[in-house]
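Quick one, T. Sequence first:
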Amino acid sequence: MSRLAVALLAVFLLYGCSPPPDEESLSSDVDTQTPTNEALSAALSNKTPRPRTIVIASDPWCPHNCEAGSDREGYMVDIAREVLGEAGYTVEYVNVSWARALQLTREGQLDAVVGAFMTDAPDFVFPDTPQGRSAIALFTHPDNRWVYDGPASLHNQKLLVINGYSYSNELDRYIEEHHANPDRIWVIAGPSPLERAIYLLDQHRTDIFAEDIYVMAWWERNNKEAIPAPRQAGVIAEIEAFVAFSPAREDARELAELLANGTRRLLASGRIQQILDQYGLSLWTETP
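Structure tokens:
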């Protein structure tokens, strides 16, 4: 089947972020009691089969997927909601830490994750057309002049990463090789780790942070605090991003095919660009 790769170019961003929480509140994967987590609790406690309801989860990673229940929940959520809704499904979107989202979806307690790379969960069922695209870069404090030049350049640098995230094959290998060395790798967790990571970078408690450039541009546009924007020190990978379905769900392949076909249809009709307009994003397409 012909494949359309959707690449999303940043970005004039319009949506706000909340102030950085204190460090202790984000020290684990335990999710605080918020309206979206009340919805998560309801989804997990509901024992009645709901075959026409798809519960998708992620930590906020705006503009790809944002705060659940907000005016703009993220363009990937919007695409999934529109495509699956046309087929008679109800899509519920909840926020939870990424590691927990993967775990609960793998177990079949949730139906899908949004913003996934194939390397995040190779056992999940992926559409053959992506719903978005990520560009992963390394960021430093604005006063730091370090530039990424391959894994060897990470020597003597402390790299901050988020629990459960995949970044690129190259960086994932480096993290796996050095994860036991706290002088090289610092893993943080929680339902909203981005602001904590930026805070730690600003306080010079880490040297480098790996993140998507569109996510960082969104944060910078909406940053209401005095924290200066981190400095981009090099893009390391451009990666397709997906809504990926639980391998425990019997109709996962059917849902993935439905979403792939619907994504291509929205792309061909121009509807995806209309969705992206709400996030200040532009669309570039490529066919083999």
